[in-house]
Amino acid sequence: MLGGIHTDLVVTVAVLFLTQTGTLGGPDGTSTFGMCTIHSHTDGSTFDGVLFRFMATCTYVLAKTCSPTEALPMFSVEAVSEENDNASLLNVQKINIDIGINRVSLLKSQTGRVVVNGVWRKLPLTLSSGTVNIKSNPATIVLDSTFGLTVSFDKAGAVHVTLPSTYSNKVCGMCGNFNHLKEDDFHNPNAQNVTALAESWQTGKTASSCEAILLPHQCDPLEKAEYASELYCGGLFSTTGPFADCLSVVQAESYFRGCVFGMCSTHGDPAVLCETLQIYSDVCSKAGIAVSMLRNSTFCPLQCGENSHYNSCADGCPKVCSTLDIAGSCGSCEARCECDSGFKLSGEKCVPEEDCGCWYNGKHYEKGETLVEGHCVQQCQCMGNNNMQCTKMQCGNNEVCKVKDGVKACFSFKSATCSVYGDPHYITYDRLAYDFQGGCSYILTTTCSGESSVQFTVFGHNMHPPLQNFTQSKLEAVALQVEDLHIILNQSGKYNHVQLPYSTSGTYGSVWVYVKNNYIILETTFGLRMQIDGKNRLFLQVDEHYKYELCGLCGTYSGYQDDDFVTPEGENLSEAFEFGDSWRVPNNSECIAHPNDPRLCDMDEMDKASNECSALFGDAFMPCHEHIHPSIYLNSCVYDYCATSGDQHTLCESLQSYATACQVAGTELPNWQTGTVCDVERIVKHNTYFLGCQKGLSGETIYFLCLCLYLCFLFVPYQTKVPHYSCYFFSKCFPLACNIDCNFDNNLCGWKQMITDAFDWTWQRGSTPTLMTGPSADHTGDGHYMYIEASSVKYGDPARLISSVCSDPGPKCLQFWYHMYGSADTMGLHIYLLRNGTANQIWRKRNDQGNVWHLAQVDIETVACFQFSSIIIIEGRRGSNDQSDVAIDDVKLIHGPCSDLRGCITAQSSKPDLNPTAPPSVPVQTTAAPQPPIVNAYFQPRITNITVVPTMEETT
């Protein structure tokens, strides 16, 4: 008999739990609730009483709604099985509960807080307008819902999932279907019977290696009833027994089931009973409930350890190292273990007096044992005889305080990386990949739990270029906001506000910005690192201690992908665009928040795109496959290939994105371009000459020229002489045509912004922003035009547009409209013809020409492909002040001389410039070092690409 439990009470208990195993109800047998439990580490029983066991470190679906109705809310409960702190046994370490828009994670190691949608929340907590309530005591967390679902999780790893009978036969998972029939409890997600395993209810990344088994019943009903009686496991439920005060605080059901199952498995081994009672007693103690003496000479007698012996009638207090070593009062004739002569009780061991341990903060430590306090702020060691020596400690910059293999210490952190690249594509901290083309400013990541000692926000500024033929936005800049510091890193390097390397510090710690290996890198002492490469790529890394602390476009960093789409309001969404747009932040500039859908491939194009992008699985990329699986980048590559109609430059950028991610992860792929269509760009990047036929062109020039049919090139590094020629032949280039005809109403029509200039031409509709300069509309009165905005650049700065290739020989007439109005001296508009590596100026205008559009026509003689095709360059130059806006519109190249068109000219209140005087030829050294690059140009890491600006508070 345990604790004086009466037999009639035991019979009632046995009937309640054995006639309807897993069902809670009244004495008439009517069921109102069903309970599924996990007990004895990873042993469990279903709502209908079928026993099972987890066999591996996996995530298992315990119960979920599988036959939903309008009256029954949907839910899902998962158990995460991992090794315990001693790495010797499996335990349930976390419970994930999905209810409505919320995902709640209960952690075994935490009873004062839970994770909601990837972010820490303190308890008690109410969610979903009061439909979900979560509370805790020192030993147990309990989640209750208004529709009857209750989930409890205690520090010993026991789990109770309780459901009302309205869910009978409408649920599935490891907990069964709750139809009161044991034989059909285990169905996999496709509703096919399985008899031995429940692996189909495993989820998570390691599901393929998980294992679960069903446990057979080991005894008949009579034997089970005996083990459920007051003499054995049934005493747990006695209202007069030793656990009476604990029953309302810590549920005993799972311990009862584990006890009965263990007794059945071992055919009544009393050690199983004693172990179960002791575990439950320990959990009650952690919850603050004192449990009276369980053991005596006949019931669960003590097994005495080393240097001790059993005394069935010991008097007085035992010899102890400290009064704290005495458990309870010292009575007479007590059954206990006593230390041998010459030894004292220290904690639970008998040791020589010189080896007495220490009591510290209510816990006993053996001599020589160490502990780490708090967030690794202090390390203490027991020197013996209650002498605890402590020293301050602090984790290093590359370390995080955590428990690993049962040891709390500073360990090298495992950073999480969020990536932004391409059109743009996002990969969250938890490796969820999605596409979002919003062309505005967004919060990429921010501390949203309120628990981090440093609160920061990282913004991403996207641009949706209207002058491109492709529907795509790009990450143009990234900004860090922390306290009163606001740092902007520009992909283009347009501004030179500070000198790199740059550093600053505050109460948040220190921040450094520097250039390394073609990256601009921002590092901090508070666990944030950013790097951009000038090609619209961003890699944002955070330390491990930010887990459950972040939200934004980079996700929540919870180790779980399904809560990554959490909005600022805490709502968990499923659609990428709705999620992305929820993190949009207002700014003072116009942006395209809802772009058109990108172009899609047909079946044939999809096959071609997949074939081209499958280069990622080739040998050149293989060294990185074990670190970053290429499948994510394959999908984004195909996406961009289709969106850009198979643009080869975009393809190479997609492949480069994977290579760059590998480099950030520590794997170099230096020669991946070899033998691919990207080989030319690789040579351009490394500043080599291209010598074709008689003349040499720079890599930058070749990039814009494309390449002509079967043109032979010799690759020669700078200042290097080689005895033999080696040639590459290219069959892909522009056809023999001159397709230059653009009114700029929709896009640039193939014109590109050059990199050998100081700033960009601007696409405009209506008036320019500066007073007393520039047109009020395009030359037709309703449309777009291109102009140079002079207010933000310096005197003499040029902006250049370069045309597509013209490879059709014969006379041509370049016709365009221009507008030059303003008081500035020497503002200019120049037209060049680039051929054979030399740019000849063929037309120019200077200074104010009045507030009116003018028509200009220029004769051009183009030549055949094999003598190098022709390129047109339009250059605008800023004058002596900001009243020097120069504009162009309706540029076209017409077959035949301009004289053939003069009978058809209709000017807008002015005469066309029919016979301008051409200045002498001016050679352009296209291999010379370019001027500071501009937005949309190529990244030059030697240029400072950082802007440090005051916050809103500083400017008010």
Indicate the overall shape: elongated
User: Main beta sheet: strand number and arrangement?
Assistant: 10 strands, antiparallel
The low-confidence parts are 1-31, 190-198, 205-209, 681-736, 864-868, 903-956
Number of strands: 59
Helix content: 10-25%
State the distance separating the first and last CA atoms: 79 Å
Strand content: 25-35%
Helix/strand class? mainly beta
* Rg over CA atoms: 38 Å
What is the number of helices? 12
User: How would you state the average pLDDT, rounded?
Assistant: 75
Pfam family, one: VWD
Protein name: Zonadhesin, like
Keywords: Disulfide bond, Glycoprotein, Repeat, Signal
Domain MAM: 740-900
Overall description:
Among the domains are: 194 residues, no CATH class; 43 residues, no CATH class; 157 residues; 80 residues; 164 residues, Jelly Rolls, CATH 2.60.120. The protein is built from twelve helices and 59 strands. The strands form twelve sheets. Strands 1, 2, 3, 4, 11, 12, 13, 14, 15 and 18 form a ten-stranded antiparallel β-sheet that branches. Strands 5, 6, 7, 8, 9, 10, 16 and 17 form an eight-stranded antiparallel β-sheet that branches. A hairpin with a 2-residue loop joins strand 38 and strand 39. The longest helix has 17 residues. It is elongated and about 125 Å long. Keywords: Disulfide bond, Glycoprotein, Repeat, Signal.
